[in-house]
Amino acid sequence: MDAETLSTIILLGSFLIMVGMRFPIAYAVGISTVLCMISMGLNLVTLPQQMVKGVWSFSLMAVPFFITMGVLMGTGGISDKLIALANSLVGWMRGGLAMVNIVASYFFGGISGSAAADTASLGSILIPMMVDEGYDADFSTAVTITSSCEGLLVPPSHNMVIYAMTAGGVSVGALFMAGYLPGALLAIALMIGSYILSVKRNYPKGEKFSLKAFGKQLVKSFWALAAVLIVVIGVVGGAFTATESAAIAVIYSLFVSVFIYKGLNWKGVWKSLDNCVETLSIVLILIAMSAAFGNCLTLLHVPAKAAALITSISSSPVVVILLLNLILLVLGMIMDMAPIILIATPILLPVAMSVGLHPVQFGIMMVLNCGIGLLTPPVGAVLFIGSAVGKRPMEKVVRATMPFYLCMLVALLLISFIPAISLWLPQITGSLL
Prior knowledge:
Blueprint: H1 3-20, H2 25-40, H3 46-55, H4 62-74, H5 79-90, H6 96-112, H7 115-132, H8 137-147, H9 150-153, H10 158-167, H11 172-178, H12 180-201, H13 211-220, H14 222-236, H15 242-260, H16 266-299, H17 302-313, H18 317-334, H19 337-354, H20 359-373, H21 381-390, H22 394-417, H23 419-429
Helix pairs in contact: 1-2, 2-16, 3-16, 4-10, 4-15, 4-16, 5-6, 5-13, 6-7, 6-8, 6-12, 7-8, 7-21, 8-21, 8-22, 10-19, 10-20, 11-23, 12-22, 14-15, 16-19, 17-19, 18-19, 18-20, 19-20, 20-22, 22-23
């Protein structure tokens, strides 16, 4: 066994062992990197250098701003307004509150960019409301957690920014535009699944659709939805960078939450900022550690070896794309989203491009795969949050979620094999490089 192979085994083997032992991901990444560097005979001084290099990025500044925007808007009293807007649009259907849950998640995801925030905020309102109307509690929780993944695709998503930074040369604006149709496709797939179950179980439906009521709720929700327009139109239109748009969105979100919706007082603002710092510290530590880990992967030629291994199994693009999805789904079951994006992108992106996948399309695939992973044990963070909010045992929620897993997989396969779903909007807006 040559030295390069041994170092690769030490790097990846120690990392997987620590993940299996439920080490915090940042520690697992850092310790495995140190062990690998020692085995390679590298000076450990390069470790902090690589960590600093990993976070020394202007585009990365968009991440804390988007996280702050999401927290401010998520706690600023907009949930009720978005639920009312969704209800006026789709509440008339059979299983109307399930449809409201799904559509409200699409709207809310465009503000929070977080599946966990979506589940905690909308779930705390909609799950009790659905149960009171006669919906099964496990079904209500399953709808809430699966629809929350729409927020990972709909811009502005800080995970898209992390992917753009890790992939290198991928336009944040293109990724933002690319997320709308896949997010809508996921919503439609979940609505079809919900409708079938609602008809089978005879769940109730709401009042008839009224254009006047919808217009009234749209006006009330305008200030919340405008935050997304500021970010997306500004970035795609070239008025400002993703970082600049995120900073403007934070000021806007603060103004709307405190002075218009009045869901936050200044004490609440400081508490929200405290939550932002806590979240951001975790993200930045992961990014720093993953930069050093990625440097070791590059030195050991792991991306090229992984590409050769996957393509040696089959030369068929269909098989390779299915394998990429399978790998990402498995990773999603044992790791959080940010580490997967940071670690797997340098390895799998060259493979994806070798079979004709555009980096933007692959980014959407990766985010959705990671989103499905957030709903699966043993490390399904959103699954745990949903079980806690719905006050339901996790195993019963997983059982109720099975039909929705199928809906999500159908959406994933369509996104994987129909490039236009991800690339059409970026192409017509001129944001695709």
